[in-house]
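Students often ask why inverse folding is considered easier than folding. One informal answer: many sequences map to the same fold, so there is more than one right answer. In these notes we will look at a single instance of the problem. The structure comes first.
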Protein backbone atom coordinates (compact mmCIF):
# COMPACT_ATOMS: atom_id res chain seq x y z
CA UNK A 1 0.00 0.00 0.00
CA UNK A 2 1.30 3.49 -0.82
CA UNK A 3 0.50 6.86 0.64
CA UNK A 4 -1.43 9.40 -1.42
CA UNK A 5 0.97 12.36 -1.40
CA UNK A 6 -1.11 15.21 -2.79
CA UNK A 7 -3.86 16.98 -0.87
CA UNK A 8 -7.37 16.44 -2.18
CA UNK A 9 -6.51 13.08 -3.72
CA UNK A 10 -9.42 10.86 -4.77
CA UNK A 11 -9.32 7.60 -2.81
CA UNK A 12 -11.44 4.52 -3.35
CA UNK A 13 -13.31 4.04 -0.09
CA UNK A 14 -16.30 1.70 -0.49
CA UNK A 15 -16.57 -1.34 -2.73
CA UNK A 16 -19.77 -1.99 -4.69
CA UNK A 17 -21.05 -4.84 -2.42
CA UNK A 18 -21.09 -2.49 0.58
CA UNK A 19 -22.83 0.21 -1.43
CA UNK A 20 -25.43 -2.18 -2.84
CA UNK A 21 -26.15 -3.46 0.69
CA UNK A 22 -26.48 0.06 2.04
CA UNK A 23 -28.88 1.33 -0.62
CA UNK A 24 -30.85 -1.92 -0.61
CA UNK A 25 -31.52 -1.38 3.10
CA UNK A 26 -32.61 2.19 2.32
CA UNK A 27 -35.09 0.96 -0.30
CA UNK A 28 -36.33 -2.20 1.39
CA UNK A 29 -37.19 -0.67 4.76
CA UNK A 30 -39.98 1.65 3.50
CA UNK A 31 -41.12 -0.97 0.96
CA UNK A 32 -41.50 -3.50 3.79
CA UNK A 33 -43.55 -1.00 5.78
CA UNK A 34 -45.74 -0.33 2.71
CA UNK A 35 -46.37 -4.02 1.97
CA UNK A 36 -47.41 -4.57 5.58
CA UNK A 37 -49.77 -1.59 5.59
CA UNK A 38 -51.36 -2.73 2.34
CA UNK A 39 -51.81 -6.29 3.59
CA UNK A 40 -49.44 -7.71 0.97
CA UNK A 41 -48.21 -10.39 3.35
CA UNK A 42 -46.77 -12.68 0.68
CA UNK A 43 -44.57 -9.89 -0.68
CA UNK A 44 -43.72 -8.77 2.84
CA UNK A 45 -42.37 -12.24 3.64
CA UNK A 46 -40.53 -12.57 0.32
CA UNK A 47 -38.80 -9.24 0.76
CA UNK A 48 -38.11 -10.14 4.39
CA UNK A 49 -36.07 -13.10 3.15
CA UNK A 50 -34.21 -10.77 0.78
CA UNK A 51 -33.48 -8.52 3.76
CA UNK A 52 -32.28 -11.54 5.70
CA UNK A 53 -29.84 -12.45 2.93
CA UNK A 54 -28.54 -8.87 2.81
CA UNK A 55 -28.05 -8.69 6.58
CA UNK A 56 -26.27 -12.04 6.59
CA UNK A 57 -24.06 -10.93 3.70
CA UNK A 58 -23.13 -7.68 5.46
CA UNK A 59 -22.23 -9.58 8.63
CA UNK A 60 -20.06 -12.07 6.73
CA UNK A 61 -18.55 -9.23 4.70
CA UNK A 62 -17.72 -7.50 7.96
CA UNK A 63 -15.27 -10.31 8.70
CA UNK A 64 -13.81 -11.25 5.30
CA UNK A 65 -14.48 -8.15 3.17
CA UNK A 66 -12.33 -5.09 2.44
CA UNK A 67 -10.72 -3.10 5.23
CA UNK A 68 -13.38 -0.38 5.27
CA UNK A 69 -16.14 -2.98 5.66
CA UNK A 70 -14.51 -5.00 8.46
CA UNK A 71 -15.83 -4.60 11.98
CA UNK A 72 -12.33 -5.03 13.38
CA UNK A 73 -11.25 -2.00 11.39
CA UNK A 74 -13.89 0.56 12.38
CA UNK A 75 -15.38 -0.61 15.71
CA UNK A 76 -13.33 1.18 18.37
CA UNK A 77 -13.25 1.48 22.15
CA UNK A 78 -13.91 4.53 24.35
CA UNK A 79 -10.40 6.00 23.85
CA UNK A 80 -10.55 6.44 20.06
CA UNK A 81 -14.17 7.61 20.29
CA UNK A 82 -13.27 10.37 22.76
CA UNK A 83 -10.23 11.34 20.71
CA UNK A 84 -12.40 11.68 17.63
CA UNK A 85 -14.99 13.78 19.47
CA UNK A 86 -12.20 16.07 20.72
CA UNK A 87 -10.85 16.46 17.21
CA UNK A 88 -7.52 14.82 18.06
CA UNK A 89 -7.87 11.71 15.92
CA UNK A 90 -6.01 11.08 12.67
CA UNK A 91 -7.93 11.18 9.35
CA UNK A 92 -10.31 8.25 9.19
CA UNK A 93 -10.51 6.13 6.04
CA UNK A 94 -13.97 4.60 6.30
CA UNK A 95 -16.44 4.79 9.17
CA UNK A 96 -15.33 7.12 11.96
CA UNK A 97 -15.51 5.78 15.56
CA UNK A 98 -18.83 7.52 16.24
CA UNK A 99 -20.36 6.51 12.92
CA UNK A 100 -19.34 2.94 13.67
CA UNK A 101 -21.71 2.94 16.66
CA UNK A 102 -24.55 3.92 14.34
CA UNK A 103 -23.62 1.20 11.85
CA UNK A 104 -23.56 -1.49 14.54
CA UNK A 105 -26.84 -0.27 16.07
CA UNK A 106 -28.67 -0.17 12.73
CA UNK A 107 -27.30 -3.52 11.56
CA UNK A 108 -28.16 -5.07 14.93
CA UNK A 109 -31.71 -3.73 14.82
CA UNK A 110 -32.15 -4.91 11.23
CA UNK A 111 -30.94 -8.37 12.22
CA UNK A 112 -33.31 -8.40 15.22
CA UNK A 113 -36.22 -7.14 13.12
CA UNK A 114 -35.72 -9.78 10.44
CA UNK A 115 -34.94 -12.53 12.94
CA UNK A 116 -38.07 -11.93 15.01
CA UNK A 117 -40.14 -11.59 11.84
CA UNK A 118 -39.24 -15.14 10.86
CA UNK A 119 -41.15 -16.40 13.91
CA UNK A 120 -44.20 -14.14 13.72
CA UNK A 121 -47.74 -14.88 12.69
CA UNK A 122 -50.67 -12.57 12.01
CA UNK A 123 -53.58 -12.13 14.39
CA UNK A 124 -55.72 -14.76 12.64
CA UNK A 125 -52.88 -17.24 12.34
CA UNK A 126 -53.34 -17.66 8.59
CA UNK A 127 -49.94 -16.16 7.67
CA UNK A 128 -46.73 -16.83 9.53
CA UNK A 129 -42.98 -16.63 9.16
CA UNK A 130 -41.09 -19.72 7.99
CA UNK A 131 -39.74 -20.44 11.48
CA UNK A 132 -43.04 -20.07 13.35
CA UNK A 133 -43.50 -23.85 13.10
CA UNK A 134 -40.73 -24.25 15.69
CA UNK A 135 -42.44 -22.30 18.47
CA UNK A 136 -45.84 -22.21 20.14
CA UNK A 137 -48.81 -20.16 18.99
CA UNK A 138 -48.43 -17.80 21.97
CA UNK A 139 -44.71 -17.35 21.34
CA UNK A 140 -45.35 -16.54 17.67
CA UNK A 141 -47.99 -14.03 18.75
CA UNK A 142 -45.46 -12.36 21.09
CA UNK A 143 -42.95 -12.32 18.23
CA UNK A 144 -45.48 -10.30 16.23
CA UNK A 145 -45.58 -7.73 19.04
CA UNK A 146 -41.77 -7.52 19.19
CA UNK A 147 -41.59 -7.29 15.42
CA UNK A 148 -43.59 -4.07 15.55
CA UNK A 149 -41.70 -2.71 18.56
CA UNK A 150 -38.28 -3.28 17.01
CA UNK A 151 -39.47 -1.59 13.82
CA UNK A 152 -40.31 1.54 15.82
CA UNK A 153 -36.87 1.47 17.44
CA UNK A 154 -35.36 1.05 14.00
CA UNK A 155 -37.23 4.11 12.74
CA UNK A 156 -35.88 6.14 15.67
CA UNK A 157 -32.29 5.13 14.90
CA UNK A 158 -32.79 5.82 11.19
CA UNK A 159 -34.01 9.33 12.07
CA UNK A 160 -30.94 9.81 14.29
CA UNK A 161 -28.73 8.53 11.48
CA UNK A 162 -30.25 11.01 9.03
CA UNK A 163 -29.77 13.88 11.48
CA UNK A 164 -26.11 12.93 11.84
CA UNK A 165 -25.70 12.95 8.04
CA UNK A 166 -27.27 16.41 7.87
CA UNK A 167 -24.97 17.62 10.67
CA UNK A 168 -21.88 16.38 8.85
CA UNK A 169 -23.08 17.85 5.55
CA UNK A 170 -24.05 21.35 6.65
CA UNK A 171 -22.01 21.91 9.84
CA UNK A 172 -18.80 19.97 9.30
CA UNK A 173 -18.95 20.33 5.50
CA UNK A 174 -18.32 16.61 5.08
CA UNK A 175 -20.56 14.91 2.51
CA UNK A 176 -21.05 11.31 3.65
CA UNK A 177 -23.61 10.43 0.98
CA UNK A 178 -21.52 10.99 -2.15
CA UNK A 179 -18.83 8.41 -1.27
CA UNK A 180 -21.55 5.83 -0.59
CA UNK A 181 -22.83 6.49 -4.13
CA UNK A 182 -19.56 6.75 -6.06
CA UNK A 183 -17.31 4.69 -3.79
CA UNK A 184 -14.68 7.46 -3.75
CA UNK A 185 -13.77 10.29 -1.42
CA UNK A 186 -11.22 13.09 -1.42
CA UNK A 187 -8.96 13.56 1.60
CA UNK A 188 -7.19 16.79 2.53
CA UNK A 189 -4.23 14.84 3.92
CA UNK A 190 -2.17 11.88 2.78
CA UNK A 191 -3.87 8.61 3.74
CA UNK A 192 -3.24 4.93 3.21
CA UNK A 193 -5.70 3.52 0.66
CA UNK A 194 -7.67 0.57 2.05
CA UNK A 195 -7.13 -2.94 0.80
CA UNK A 196 -10.03 -4.64 -0.99
CA UNK A 197 -11.15 -8.24 -0.93
CA UNK A 198 -10.65 -10.68 -3.84
CA UNK A 199 -13.63 -11.97 -5.80
CA UNK A 200 -13.50 -15.44 -4.24
CA UNK A 201 -14.31 -13.95 -0.85
CA UNK A 202 -17.24 -12.09 -2.37
CA UNK A 203 -18.49 -15.33 -3.92
CA UNK A 204 -18.12 -17.11 -0.58
CA UNK A 205 -20.08 -14.41 1.27
CA UNK A 206 -22.87 -14.50 -1.32
CA UNK A 207 -23.13 -18.30 -1.20
CA UNK A 208 -23.20 -18.36 2.62
CA UNK A 209 -25.82 -15.59 2.90
CA UNK A 210 -28.03 -16.91 0.10
CA UNK A 211 -27.71 -20.50 1.34
CA UNK A 212 -28.77 -19.66 4.89
CA UNK A 213 -31.66 -17.49 3.66
CA UNK A 214 -32.87 -20.31 1.38
CA UNK A 215 -32.61 -22.85 4.24
CA UNK A 216 -34.60 -20.53 6.52
CA UNK A 217 -37.23 -20.00 3.80
CA UNK A 218 -37.84 -23.77 3.87
CA UNK A 219 -38.47 -23.70 7.61
CA UNK A 220 -34.85 -24.40 8.63
CA UNK A 221 -35.27 -28.19 8.41
CA UNK A 222 -32.97 -30.30 10.57
CA UNK A 223 -32.47 -33.95 9.56
CA UNK A 224 -34.15 -36.25 12.08
CA UNK A 225 -35.83 -33.41 13.96
CA UNK A 226 -39.51 -32.54 13.54
CA UNK A 227 -41.17 -29.26 14.57
CA UNK A 228 -43.38 -29.53 17.67
CA UNK A 229 -47.13 -29.97 17.03
CA UNK A 230 -49.28 -26.81 17.23
CA UNK A 231 -50.33 -26.03 20.79
CA UNK A 232 -53.24 -23.71 20.09
CA UNK A 233 -56.70 -25.22 19.30
CA UNK A 234 -57.23 -22.75 16.48
CA UNK A 235 -53.84 -23.63 15.02
CA UNK A 236 -54.71 -27.32 15.16
CA UNK A 237 -57.97 -26.67 13.32
CA UNK A 238 -56.14 -24.53 10.78
CA UNK A 239 -53.57 -27.26 10.22
CA UNK A 240 -56.34 -29.79 9.65
CA UNK A 241 -58.04 -27.42 7.23
CA UNK A 242 -54.81 -26.98 5.24
CA UNK A 243 -54.38 -30.75 5.00
CA UNK A 244 -57.93 -31.24 3.73
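Output (designed amino acids):
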Amino acid sequence: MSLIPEAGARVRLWDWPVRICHWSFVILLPVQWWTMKKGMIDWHMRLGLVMLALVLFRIVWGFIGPETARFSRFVKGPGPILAYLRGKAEPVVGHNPVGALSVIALLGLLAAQVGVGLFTQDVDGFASGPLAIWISYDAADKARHWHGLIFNLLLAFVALHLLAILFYTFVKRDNLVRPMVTGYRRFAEAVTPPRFAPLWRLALAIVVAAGIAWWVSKGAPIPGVKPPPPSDPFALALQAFRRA
